[in-house]
Write a structure and sequence with these properties.
With 300 residues, the protein is mostly helical. It is built from eleven helices and three strands; from the N terminus they run H-H-H-H-H-E-H-H-H-H-H-E-E-H. It has helices at 3-8, 17-46, 56-64, 66-81, 98-123, 134-167, 175-187, 193-198, 200-221, 225-241, 262-285, and strands at residues 128-130, 242-243, 255-257. The chain has a three-stranded mixed beta sheet with strand order 1-3-2. The longest helix is centred in the middle third of the chain and has 34 residues, at 134-167. The relative contact order is 0.16.
Length: 300
């Protein structure tokens, strides 16, 4: 594992507790303010603010509106409050490993598709249906391809980058930052509609498990690229390819699951995650090694 390299980045800047506290508080305030503003705008335009009555595009715009602001706050905080390079949240190396990001995301996308194919054909035949509608899908897809990567990248930069590096200042054990950031990540997804629809006991292991996987591959590779790839691929897949009732992403996806079985979905996730980790470790080992003598970048 390369956790020491990844965590070393945080020590190149200023790390007083108040700097982290202020950043988190500003993010919370900004999220509340933007949420209120967007809600009022939607109310004035449509005359109601019932989430269940929103169109997929309206729901996407409303739900994604906070992430560019969070990203801006995080950038300003890291660059000026912590006085270190923003790229240090992603990697300590001089260059971002785009190939690793594509490998990781592509692998997760393929495994997700294969798991749904197996489920649709042999486990629950007839439970999936082709639901493509060009008039609703194409404009939604264009927006999703822009907004979902911003949303997922922001979450990765906050949880696997900013917070996990911050927690590493408290301990020399990499597992503690990994678990703490994953628990916070999972807890902030408790308000998702699928938790209420399918039960805390079946949905929270998915969010916690995803957080742990994303955190582990970050520590394993010493950078955020692999987790960025998985998270982007996962949410684009859920938004564009396969959807189900009460999904957090209201979507006119290509396929619809009519009766979502949370227990089966959790088992499928565990199998898919194990397969992904095994293949990623194998494929990542076949990539060319990084350049020699790469050092952690210092503050400009």
């Amino acid at each position: 594992m390369h956790s020491d390299e990844f965590f070393a980045s945080v020590r190149s800047g200023k790390n007083g507790f108040w700097r982290y506290f202020l950043t988190v508080m500003v993010i919370v305030v900004v999220v509340i303010i933007i949420g209120v503003i967007v809600g009022l705008i939607y109310l004035l335009v449509t005359g109601n603010i019932d989430i269940n009555q929103m169109s997929p595009i309206s729901s996407l715009l409303v739900n994604m509106s906070i992430f560019p602001a969070i990203l801006l706050v995080l950038f300003l905080s890291v660059r000026f409050l912590h006085q270190r390079r923003f790229k240090s949240l992603i990697t300590p190396q001089p260059k971002i490993a785009w190939r690793r990001m594509l490998l990781s995301g592509g692998l997760w996308l393929i495994i997700s598709a294969l798991s749904d194919i197996v489920t649709a054909l042999w486990v629950t035949p007839g439970n999936y249906s082709w639901s493509f509608n060009s008039k609703s899908f194409i404009p939604f897809a264009i927006l999703a391809l822009i907004l979902i990567p911003i949303q997922t990248s922001t979450e990765e930069l906050v949880f696997r980058g900013y917070l996990m590096q911050a927690f590493s200042l408290l301990t020399k054990h990499p597992w503690i930052p990994l678990v703490l950031s994953s628990v916070i990540f999972a807890s902030l997804h408790l308000s998702n509609p699928e938790v209420a629809a399918y039960g805390f006991a079946w949905m929270i292991p998915f969010y916690l498990g995803m957080g742990l996987i994303l955190g582990w591959i970050t520590l394993y590779t010493g950078g955020l690229e692999a987790s960025l790839g998985v998270h982007i691929a996962n949410n684009l897949y859920a938004g564009l390819l396969v959807t189900f009732p009460s999904s957090a992403i209201v979507s006119p996806a290509l396929f619809t699951i009519h009766n979502y079985d949370a227990k089966l979905a959790l088992v499928t996730f565990v199998i898919s995650a194990a397969l992904y980790l095994a293949l990623f470790i194998w494929l990542n080992g076949k990539q060319p090694p990084p350049e020699e003598n790469m050092q952690v970048e210092q503050t400009a």
